[in-house]
Input
Amino acid sequence: MEIDIEKLVNHIINDVKDPQVKQTSDSKPERFDTAGTMSQSSSTDDPCAGGMFDTVDQAILAAKKAQEKLFASTLKVRQEIITALREQLLPEVDEIARRAFEETGMGSLADKIKKNRLAIEKTPGVEDLTNSSRVITGDGGMTLYEYCPYGVIGSITPSTNPTETIINNSISMIAAGNSIYFSPHPGAKKCSAWLIRKMNQIISDVSGIDNLLVSIKAPSIEAAQEMMDHPEIKLLAVTGGPGVVSQAMHSGKKVIGAGAGNPPVLVDETANVGKAAQDIVDGASFDNNVPCFAEKNVIVVSAVAAELLTGMQAAGAYYISNPTEIEKIRKLTVTDKNTPNKKYVGRPAQKILEDAGVSYQGKPRLILIEADKNSPFAQLEMLMPVLPFIRVQNYEEGLATSLELEHGLHHTAIMHSRNVERLAQAARLMQTTIFVKNGPSYVGIGYQGEGPTTFTIATPTGEGPTTARTFARIRRCALTDGFSLR
Ligand code: NAD
Output
């Protein structure tokens, strides 16, 4: 019996596809309005208010339908969605950053613009999947491995990078064929909801698919937990501190956990010390130190400590060694429970100095505290531009101190040295997901450096810097006999 493959495929696709969406490849998608007449896509007939729902269940079920439509369409449609997101979000990048900055009160507006731009421009799309398919051929036939969607992904996003994480995860996860339920930090709910609506509109206009991104109008910790337990959530991507990552691990689902860090930067006596000083100040003051990958501890071999300090002061660091002043900063920024004071997370160095009552000159963008490795400034992930300056006798002590302060989080470490053997040894022994040699920490996520970007760096669960293929299941398809050309 002869089978008309094309007819069969069309039949299956039309069965799965929402009858309201008719796929076209070169023009705007056509859809039927409620009266049954054909119209071009527009926001006014959007029944979902841009993906924002009252309940977790409604949102996830809508995202499930949307994912089925995406899965029934082509890779070309996914790529068109991503291209439209890049093109239409870029002119809005200042506004996106401004909303996040004003709502959270964290970081610096100029740096938030850079981070959002980076997410829009350098998050890989569909090519990350297509160039990673694998084929094995032999006498027995052919076996194919491909990266395929999970379905609806539950993505929990942080207050520190709210919008860039939504952009970065959306591009990666849509490229892999998924829809996404976003659970934003309640402290960033307005900018997140605004962005989700905007992105949904762009997606709807280009593909005719509504609700590929969903969330609820009033996000909360409880709603995030409800989402984690929902049977239609097939994968969790959690970008946040240790509490939420471990909560997700108890859900019984697969978790891509992008957790906390405490990155050390080690400077040895062979380093280009002037460059190291500039790089450390640039990296550690970027967005007022809220990025999880930013330098959090300066560890320097004492032979070059004075030179590094002078260089860092010239680059904009304010150094404090007076115990009374150190105590003033500690009292302000560390709570009685020995946790960072959230009021000062991501706040500018000058604001911290002023509120602590420490007088200063110039316009410092980083505070350097003379400290040892047991100080709270060293032990805690402070997420503010206050760094301990820790002197060590030699490289070996420096490496041991770096390992201790990274706390086995496997996140990020940075080293400045011209000794290739030491660089190689430290990179291997630190076992961090990102290791930066002779540069500011942010080159590790592709800012002013090579490689794609990510704002979801999967540390405890080991997937590493995420891209589309991280959010895809690997499936194997075996075909017997033939299809080998040898
Ligand atoms: P956070 O842990 O307070 O919140 C993160 C997200 O988890 C928010 O959406 C919050 O609402 C949710 N959440 C918190 N506790 C929860 C619980 N018990 N159940 C369900 N949901 C819960 O962190 P934050 O202050 O928003 O972000 C900063 C932290 O995130 C830092 O530790 C930083 O290192 C980390 N981070 C890691 C990465 C990475 O890629 N590895 C990226 C950004 C931030």
User: Anything to note?
Assistant: Confidence is low (pLDDT under 50) at residues 11-48. Residues 156-161, 183-186, 221, 224-225, 239-241, 243-244, 247, 258-261, 292, 381, 455-457, 459 surround nicotinamide-adenine-dinucleotide (CB under 6 Å). The radius of gyration is 25 Å. The longest strand covers residues 141-149.
